[in-house]
Structures are given as C-alpha cells and as structure tokens.
Design brief:
With 697 residues, the protein is an alpha+beta fold. Helix content is 50%, strand content 18%. The chain is built from 19 helices and 20 strands.
C-alpha cells in the first residue's frame, strides 16, 4: 500500500474561485479561495498557491516541483497539511466513499442530536432579505451621503449638539432617568431596532458601492439574543485593506452620525413626543456604538476594524495561539515553537491582547450565563446556565489543561517542582482557615449625645454659641407668651383668694365660705406651680459636659420654633460608638468582643474598637441618612423616605477604643475580625446554599 505522500491528491471542486488578495503586512503575496456555495473565503499564502497550480499529482511530486521551480523549499508534510485543510473545509471533490458518508449523514435526524441543539442554541441565523437589487438603487440615490462635505457637516452638527446638551445637562440626565418606565423601555426597543437597521444598512451600502454582492440580511441569535446581521463576506475579494476597513466601520459611523444628529435635534426641539424619540435614538446609538460595537474583544465591528487597520486577519485566533504558547513556555518551561514568527515587541503585544480578550470574555460569558438563568424558568435556566459555563469557560480551560497533561514528560524537573509547589501553596491558601475579615459600613457617633428640641412651639430668646459647655449650663432660652400670661393670671387669682381669706377670718359670718375659698386658692397655687414648671422647661440646660454644635446660623431672637426642628446637638466627644451594618450571610461569623478596625472616609489610618452588640433581626430602617445611596452612601434602599435597605442587613453596635479627631458623625467602612474561614470552604458553602435554595421546583 502506498504511503500518503505517494498517493494522488483528490481533485478540487469545480465551483471554487481563486482571486488575488492584498499583500500581507510584510509584503508576502496572498490569494483568496471562494466557496461559492457557502459564500465563504479562505486566505492562502504563496506556498498554498503554488500547490494549487500543481494540484493533481502526489504530495511528494508537488513539493519537488515547487522546490525546482521556485525559491520555496516545502516539505511533504506541508503539502499534506494543506490537503487536510482543503478536506476539512470540504473544498475537495468528494469521492464515492465520502459521498456515501455525506448521504448517510444527511439522512440522519440531525436535529435529534444534543450537539445540534447546543450549536443552534448558542448561535443561529435566519436570513430575511436578499437585498442586492434594492441596495444598488439605494446606493445610487444616496451617493451624496458619501461625499466628504456631508461627513464634515455631520461632524460639525454633532459637535454643536453635544455642546448644547452639555449646557442643559441636568435636563438631559433627568429625561433619561424618567424614561426608565414600561413605556420608555418599549420606546428604547423601537429606537434600538431603528439604529441597528441603519447600522446594518451602512455596511450593505458601502459594500455595494465597492462592487460587492450582499448575499442576504437577517437576524442572528447569539445565546437566544437577537441581532441584525449583513452578509459582507465578499469583502475578502477586495485587495486593499482600507476598502475592507470602510465596510467594517460603516455601521459604527452610521450609528454615531445618527446619535450626533439626534443629540442636536433633542437640544433644539421643544418638549414633546418628537423630543422623546430623539432622546431614545441618541442614547441607544451612543451607548451601543461606543460600549458594544467598538469593542475589539468580541467579533463585532471593533474587532474587524482593528484587524483591517493592522491588516491582520484572524486576529483573535492567532493572538490566542501565541498566548497559549507563551503560557506553556513561561509557566511550564516547554520549548514549544511559536505558531508564527513575529518581532518580540509585536508578539508581546499580541499576547497581552489575547489575555485581555480572555478576561473580557470571562466576565461577559459569566454575565450572559446569569442573565440566561434569570430569564428562563428555573429548571431550564439552571440547565442553560451550566451549558454556558461548560461550553464557553470550562471547555477551553480543560482543553488547555489536557495539553499540559499530555506534555508533562517534557516539562523540566525544576519547573515541575516550582509549579507544583506554587499550586500546593495556592490550594493551601484557599483551604487554610485564615480569612477572618468581615466588611461592614457604618456611622461613628458620640456615645452620649443629646439633640435639643423645643418642648413645644415657643419663641426663641437666646441660643448659646457653638463651644464646649459644662453640665447645667444654659444652651437655649425660650419664651411662650401664653404661659407668661397664664402665670400672671394664676398669681393674681391666688393673691385675690388670699386677701379674701383674710377678710373671711375677720367676719364671723364668712366661716361658711372659708373651705370653698381655701380650695380655690389651692387650685390657683397648683396652676401657678405647673405653669412655672412649664416655663422652666423652656430654659434648656446641658445634662452633661460636652460640645454644643450644629446650630442654625439663621436663628434670631424672637423667632418661633416648633417641636420638630432641632436647636442643636450636645455630644460627649470622649466616648464613640458606631452603628454598623453587616450582610446577612456574614453576621453569623461575628461575636460580641470581636476586634474592629474603623476607616473614616477620607482617612487611611484606622481606629480600633470592639463589638458591643449584634442585632437579632434584620434591620428594618437605616439609622443614618448618610448611609443611603440617595445621599451618597454605600447602602441601596427601597425608598428614599423610608430608608429601608434593599438587601438583608443586620445592625451591629461597635465601641471605639479612642475618640475621633472630628466631633461630627462620620461615615466609614469597618473590618471586623470574625470567625476564621477558608475561601474554599466559603465557596463550598455558597454552592451548597445555592443548590438548596434552587433545589425546589
């Protein structure tokens, strides 16, 4: 039996097209193979082109002829690798055996395979239009749009619109916040459809003007999320990378132009339906163009723009291959060859780009997995969540770890010891119960404080200025005219009854009225005493020594104050406590007496303390407004007026060992030394908790 190098190569498909492409970044020639059935394009180099010119012989004959006729010196293995590439992408004419396999495969119920469902769940496309004829007419009618003056005019108008919006920024942000309603979300969806339709139309029109055929336009579903798409695969026919760059950037340019003009329209329009529509167009276009489409870390427009700018096809795949080899060489010490020869600086840049892309995709795929879990009903959501984690995260990691395991014999002994040691240290760091810090937020306040209010509506006579005061010192003096009048009346009545009693004692006939008059006198005396007590309450004195502060500078003598308005606050600055709040899943790790470090806002040096008390039930309301997110604090609340925390928090009382430098209430963060736990144990308990919580269907 002949060896593969001496067997004739199968013929190529007759419907393939070969066209010349632009030279590579280093000047090497390139060509493109077009699969006219699938409308796919494959870029090949000089060696592959020479192989195609001599296709039909054996791999050994082809390699020998190329070596005789050109400066290339290929190996037989290179020709066999190219043959495998053509066969893998079904570019060879199928023989009888392959036809039988294809026929048997087509007769199978592919849709019953889990792989078919998995692939079509992750990504599938639905073509809707074959717009080539209409695109040509539209491109001719809109030729003025592509004039340089039109682009300059759009830029100027967009800049003017941004300037005008910045001048009324408060109104713009207020309108955006108010738009988050059921009706507003529906309007955002409509604006998104309009913006993305124009986005894809921009790609299609530029491709049409460059003489390419747009095969179809439709909807692509990425993890069941609909996205419009345009088939511009023929852009690989273009020999100039600047032309491909124009097609790739046309969508973002169209969307940014729409955003700029909509911004200007919003700034010039009067309030109404039109202004709201322009707001939706502006916000969706700016956000999606800059935050999503411009990202080069996914295969969106930003990726193709960067690839064309660098003239670097398959940027993700080639950079990832370099990064994998870099990890193997640096971590394991494997002397693997680089997939492609690059200068050191360019190779390092590509490796860094690949690592950033991995991290970006990790965060994105985790977010998609959580969204899928929340979007579907529980059982299906859990299944799809596991599919997301397995397919996009676990599978690539396991594939790379499998390669490490297969190559373990080639790893240098010293590198094995070092790698295993670091791995054991990492596992020990995860397993050893050293993690004890519990994060909390709180407000430090004086342990003894007295907020002074008027006992009832009264007129202000005087207020002591902000200063240190002693116990019993007058802080504020109030006056209530009705009480003064009542006191005068009671005293006058008492004197009248006393005089009358003196007269009755001298008159023998007045003895009968003596008891009644004496009773009335006692009533007036009690009223006088009660009135004096009420008046004494208006003389507000310090119950303890401390600092008197938080006075209203607008207080004036003779001004009336009510019971709800504080006159000031008296604090004892020698002893401080903290009203802290701890998450529900962490409070069980805290015990009375645990040490605490408090970091006031704006200070790096902590103040030590200890836990005094722990709330037994969930906090129903925040004790301090400054902790609420509505007032710049770290705690999200359900309603601004009620101050009810959105998540379950428990209140913890902390005593500080030393007073703070400032005398006012201070917001800050706490580190509580609670029960020691390992990170691995915490993760296991979290997984078990999620399983128990989600186990009921």
């Amino acid at each position: 039996m002949l060896e593969p190098a001496d067997q004739p190569l199968p013929p190529l498909r007759e419907d393939l097209r070969l066209s010349e492409a632009a030279n590579g970044s280093s000047g090497e020639p390139a060509w493109v193979i077009q699969d006219t059935v699938l409308n796919r394009f494959y870029r090949i180099g000089w060696l592959e082109f020479e192989c195609l010119l001599r296709w039909g012989g054996t791999p050994r004959q082809i390699s020998q002829k190329i070596a005789d006729d050109t400066a290339l010196k290929p190996d037989v293995e290179q020709v066999l690798d190219f043959r495998q590439f053509l066969d893998q992408h079904q570019l060879l004419r199928p023989g009888p055996a392959q036809l039988a396999r294809l026929q048997a495969k087509s007769q199978e119920r592919i849709w019953s395979s889990w792989r078919w469902w998995l692939h079509h769940y992750l990504f599938f496309r639905i073509p809707l239009l074959r717009p080539q004829a209409g695109l040509q007419r539209l491109a001719d009618a809109l030729s003025w749009v592509f004039h340089p003056l039109t682009g300059l005019l759009v830029i100027v108008l967009s800049v003017i619109g941004i300037i005008l919006v910045m001048q009324q920024w408060d109104s713009f942000t207020h309108a955006v916040v108010e738009s988050f309603s059921t009706e507003g979300l529906f309007s955002f969806a409509l604006a998104l459809i309009v913006a993305k339709t124009l986005h894809e139309l921009g790609h299609a029109l530029v491709a049409t003007r460059l003489g390419l055929r747009v095969g179809h336009m439709g909807i692509a579903f990425v993890v069941l999320w609909p996205m419009l798409y345009t088939d511009t695969g023929e852009s690989w026919k273009l020999q100039r990378s600047r032309q491909r760059l124009a097609i790739a950037s046309a969508g973002i340019i169209t969307e940014l132009s729409l955003a700029g003009l909509a911004t200007l329209g919003w700034a010039l329009c009067d309030p109404g339906a039109l202004r709201n529509a322009l707001l939706y167009l502006a916000t969706t276009s700016w956000l999606l163009s800059l935050a999503l489409n411009a990202s080069p870390f996914m295969r969106f427009d930003g990726y193709f723009i960067l690839s064309d700018l660098l003239d670097f096809p398959n940027l993700h795949e080639r950079a990832s291959a370099l990064a994998r080899v870099a990890l193997r060489r640096n971590l394991l010490g494997l002397d693997e060859p680089w997939p492609e020869p690059f200068p050191t600086g360019q190779r390092r840049a590509l490796v860094a780009f690949a690592i950033v892309t991995w991290l970006y995709r990790l965060v994105l795929f985790l977010g998609i997995a959580v969204a899928v879990y929340l979007f579907f009903f529980k059982l299906l959501g859990i299944i799809l969540f596991m599919v997301e984690l397995s397919w996009f995260i676990a599978l690539p990691v396991m594939r790379e770890l499998g390669h490490w395991w297969r190559e373990r014999a080639r790893i240098p002994r010293l590198r094995k010891v070092l790698f295993n040691g670091l791995l054991l240290l990492g596992l020990a760091g995860l397993a050893i119960p050293w993690h004890s810090q519990i994060d909390a937020v709180g407000v430090a306040r004086a342990e003894h404080q007295w907020r002074v209010y008027a006992p009832y509506p009264a007129r202000l006579q005087s207020v002591h200025g902000s200063a240190t005061v002693e116990a019993g010192q007058v802080l504020a003096t109030l006056d209530e005219p009705d009480l003064t009048s009542r006191l005068s009346s009671s005293e006058a009545n008492a004197r009248s009854y006393e005089a009358r009693l003196s007269g009755l004692l001298a008159d023998p006939s007045g003895l009968a009225e003596d008891a009644a008059t004496r009773q009335r006198l006692n009533v007036q005396i009690e009223e006088t005493r009660a009135t004096r007590t009420e008046i004494a309450r208006l003389n507000l004195q310090a119950p303890f020594a401390g600092t008197w502060l938080d006075l209203n500078p607008d207080w004036k003598p003779g001004q009336w104050v009510n019971r709800q308005e504080p006159l000031g606050i008296l604090i004892d600055p020698r002893h401080w406590q903290i009203d802290a709040y701890v998450a529900q899943d962490q409070v069980h790790r805290i015990a009375v007496g645990d040490p605490v470090r408090f970091y006031p806002e704006g200070h790096t040096a902590p103040v030590s303390g200890r836990v005094l008390a722990i709330g037994s039930t969930r906090a129903g309301q925040l004790a301090h407004r400054m902790l609420s997110a509505h007032f710049g604090g770290p705690v999200q609340v359900t309603a601004q007026e009620q101050m009810v925390p959105s998540s379950a928090l428990f209140q913890v009382l902390v005593a500080l060992d030393a007073p703070l430098e400032q005398v006012r209430e201070t917001r800050g963060r706490l580190k509580i030394e609670g029960e020691r736990r390992s990170l691995l144990g915490d993760f296991g308990r979290w997984v078990a908790g999620v399983g128990l919580r989600e186990g009921g269907f």
